[in-house]
Amino acid sequence: MAYSRASAAVHAPQPAAVERSPGYWSNVWRRLRRDPVAMAAGSLILLLILMAVLAPWITPADPFHASMLRRLRPIGTPGYPLGSDELGRDLLSRLMLGARLSLFMGITPVIAAFVLGSALGVIAGYAGGMANTVIMRTVDVFYAFPSVLLAIALSGTLGAGIFNALVSLTIVFVPQIARVAESVTTQVRRSDYVDAARASGARSWTIVRVHVLSNVLGPIFVYATSLISVSMILASGLSFLGLGVRPPEPEWGLMLNTLRTAIYTQPWVAALPGVMIFVTSISFNLLSDGLRSAMEVKE
Amino acid sequence: MTHPDPAGAPPLLRLRDVRVAFGGGGKTVQALSGVDLDVRRGEAVALIGESGSGKSVTLRTLMRLHPPRHTRVEGEIRIEGQDVLAMSARQLAALRGPVVSMVFQEPLLALDPVYPIGNQIVEMIRRHEAIDAKAARARALSLFERVRIPSPQRRLEAYPHELSGGMRQRAMIALALACQPRLLLADEPTTALDATVQIQILLLLRELQRELQLAIVFVTHDIGAAAEIADRVAVMYGGRIVEQGSMAQLLQAPRHPYTIALLKSRAHGALRKGERLDTIAGSPPDLAALPPGCAFADRCTLALPACRERVPGLESLSADHAVRCLRADQTIGAIP
Amino acid sequence: MSATVLPAHADVGGPAQPLLSVRGLVKHFPLKQAPWQRRGGTAVRAVDGVDFEVLKGETLGVVGESGCGKSTTARLVMQLLAQDRGELVFDGLTVGSHRLSLREFRRQAQMVFQDSYSSLNPRMTIEDSVAFAPTVHGVPRAQAVTAARELLERVGLQPQRFAGRYPHELSGGQRQRVNIARALALRPRLVILDEAVSALDKSVEAQVLNLLLDLKAAFGLTYLFISHDLNVVQYISDRVMVMYLGEVVELGPVQAVFHRPMHPYTQALLRSMPSMDPAQRTEAAPLAGDPPNPIDPPPGCRFHTRCAHARAICRQQAPELRRHGPHAVRCLIHQPESGYAASEALT
């Protein structure tokens, strides 16, 4: 047919390699690298994660070794560089080991909620109509509760313990992520390139997989990273209330609880777990902000 | 090229060797590379060009609308004899509105969506003149009548999104005229409008030009629209004016290769069926890396090595026709 | 060569059969109104009974102003929107029937959109965007990419330079070429161009128009060319269709419509084109007011409220689209039995 005649005109041998532009994420990484604040925050987080992973091997003392004689020592005591807690355990070692659970409980629910929430939101956003209404209005019911109360209520119902705390935190974050996912998906759904894909006969699942996800997961991811700090604080709160981690496991929020009464006698020591929570949360937030700026710029 | 006013008075608007560069992010973009232009009172001048030619930048520079931090402006800009580039913020505020005002391409973006149009006009008037709200409102009403908005009283209380496209553009013109400026800058005001509405707006502008002795600088990429309204036209390319003259001169006897190529590439019904359009090879110059010579040389069929060495000066071919081209002698009679 | 990547489409009906027949197309968009806001209309009657045919190998131009329904018509033809009533017949087969499934129809009809940037997935390279549609229809990826590169070459973009790039790195004209390549990847027979050159600079527009003419000849395409630019439509079309408020008001060979327009709206539209002669400028606007809103169309003939020739009967009776040879018009003036001549003029 006519097409073969046209193709015959293109007789050049297969040319040399095609120039490839750096992909979207390479450009994001390049921009992120030039952002000093985001880089500093990112490095700090990496250090904390490293510390958490290596904790069992690098703590100076045994985090569980109690000593009734050496309770609530101040910062700078020989053998207890950051002091000791109400049971005489080395605070520095407990903080280092505590990073494990605190970070774990901060990041895991967000990852789980990212997967679940994105799935719900993308389906609702792409399908529209009744499916959208059913999914989003159900999500709204959960969204209506303040996160702290919802976390506490769910944890209280499920019972104390790490796993239950993770489940309840995940449920708290799914609606928020689902909302963002639905909003972004709806926007992308309306764009001409999705129409062009529909017009070429592609099925919905193919379009979602090829066109929608690549454009939608980025913004959702950025939003999710901003939830990590919230998750850490909520997890600490749950542990504080006795609903999450149980003693003697070190976890920053739980440590804040047990050191509560020491505020009057050793305020600096009592505040240290709080400082760790603060520093980690801020770092995640700054990194998330930097990521958002790096992703926003359209060249 | 200067246009001596018959009365001997200096032109309303004078641009001399205006250069504008945008910096930031390491790259400097030379948006304008030496623009000379005169506009007399009551004269309509069209600036024609494509994306990147510098026509919109010229307009915005006249009112100093660019953020000062990343913009470098050199040269001379005089409106009614006053040096615009040396003005303080307060002097600029006094200039914008009563002396010069601007009409944009998309009224929905240029008008505040949360206030009724009437309020916006009244606010503009009262900012520059000490009259009370009632008198200002009456003036707004008469402005709406002047721009021929039907049911003006009702429309004064409408929000921008409640008006149709043509009426919004009329409302924007009314807003621009609120303080009786002498110079109206129009940045592609009819590009987004339907054909039947476009001709109405062009006629309105022409009428206002006549009645109010309004000088108009009309930026467009549509030569047809320019032909309906402009007395004189300047063609821009690569941040410079490459040809200037009366509308008739430019349409019937253009001399710059770019102008000729532009006119020839227009689709129109007189072409034979299936006849291909004359296109201009290549692509517009990179304003961050302008060549030392004529910016059009790489795409010009008449280019000589001399063209690439230095920028040609603006040469007068006749009293009202000037061309920036070393090869202008080769282009006589290009448009039959 | 890539000629047999996808099987060529068979010409079912022969040269006399119109490639596309649109019959009685209706699309209303219901308005979401609160009960106290009911303002007379309950729906935007975007397309209100449109009939036309596109003949094999021709370019049918479609002109009209805001609210006329030309873009909605394009989307209905592509089935990106489902019509309320009406049917599409492609080469004699009803679209959506068991003889011509929607998926198969979509292989044969493609569209190029106005906004070149939003028509391309910003996260996909150019060659991936062009290769996507064939992979959907079962072509192995490697072959699809090779074919995509050949198409890019065909539309004037060197594959080495452009295939691996992203949309934001290209200019408007280059992106539109990519969109054209994408539309051709499935070897369609009908290509709908919805204001495809409107957003481009004039010199780039000329290049793309030349490309469209070349491709049409090389691939035996049929075009439905929608535009508000009357000059371009006159240049490129064989026949022209004029739309107003959701209806076709005139349809005929391009020279007939442009030089001997029969409908008063067409006449006004053509007179609105700038004169290009500074010595003879337009002195009066041919049409007052703005194109009306399709929410509440006037009774009878929809154009009568702005028509210089309107008479009382025009308010009562809606004209039908009547053929006078190859030239069809929807106007009572050309329907002598309607009583137009005897009716009084509207003041």
Characteristics:
heterotrimer, A: 299 residues, mainly alpha, 72% helix, disordered N terminus, C: 347 residues, alpha/beta, 8-stranded mixed β-sheet, 12 strands
* Name given to the CATH architecture of the domain at 13-99 and 181-268 and 279-330 in chain B: 3-Layer(aba) Sandwich
Largest beta sheet of chain A, briefly? none
Instruction: Could you tell me the CATH topology label of the domain at 13-99 and 181-268 and 279-330 in chain B.
Output: Rossmann fold
Bin the strand percentage of chain A: under 5%
Shape, per Cα inertia axes of chain B: globular
Q: Could you give a quick summary of the protein structure above?
A:
The complex is a heterotrimer of chains A (299), B (336) and C (347). Chain B is α/β, with parallel strands linked by helices. Chain B has helices at residues 55-62, 89-95, 107-110, 117-128, 133-146, 152-156, 165-177, 195-212, 223-229, 247-252, 257-264, 305-309, and strands at 13-22, 29-39, 44-48, 71-79, 82-83, 100-103, 183-187, 215-220, 232-237, 240-246, 315-318, 321-323.
Question: What does this protein structure show overall?
Answer:
The complex is a heterotrimer of chains A (299), B (336) and C (347). Chain A has helices at residues 2-9, 24-33, 36-58, 91-127, 129-143, 147-158, 162-189, 192-199, 204-240, 252-258, 267-296. With 299 residues, chain A is mainly alpha-helical. Chain A has one domain (27-55, 90-296): MetI-like (MetI-like fold, Orthogonal Bundle). Chain A is elongated. Chain B has 336 residues and is an alpha/beta fold. Chain B has 12 helices and 12 strands. Chain B has helices at residues 55-62, 89-95, 107-110, 117-128, 133-146, 152-156, 165-177, 195-212, 223-229, 247-252, 257-264, 305-309; strands spanning 13-22, 29-39, 44-48, 71-79, 82-83, 100-103, 183-187, 215-220, 232-237, 240-246, 315-318, 321-323. In chain B, the strands form 2 sheets. An 8-stranded mixed sheet of chain B has the order 6-7-8-3-9-10-12-11, with helices on both faces. Chain B has a 4-stranded antiparallel sheet with strand order 2-1-4-5, covered by helices on one side. Chain B starts with 12 loop residues before the first strand and ends in a 13-residue tail after the last strand. Among the domains of chain C are: 117-188, no CATH class; 247-274 and 293-338, no CATH class. The chains are: A mainly alpha (299), B alpha/beta (336), C alpha/beta (347). Chains in contact: A-C, B-C. At the A-C interface, helix 1, helix 8 and helix 9 of A face helix 2, helix 3, helix 4 and helix 5 of C.
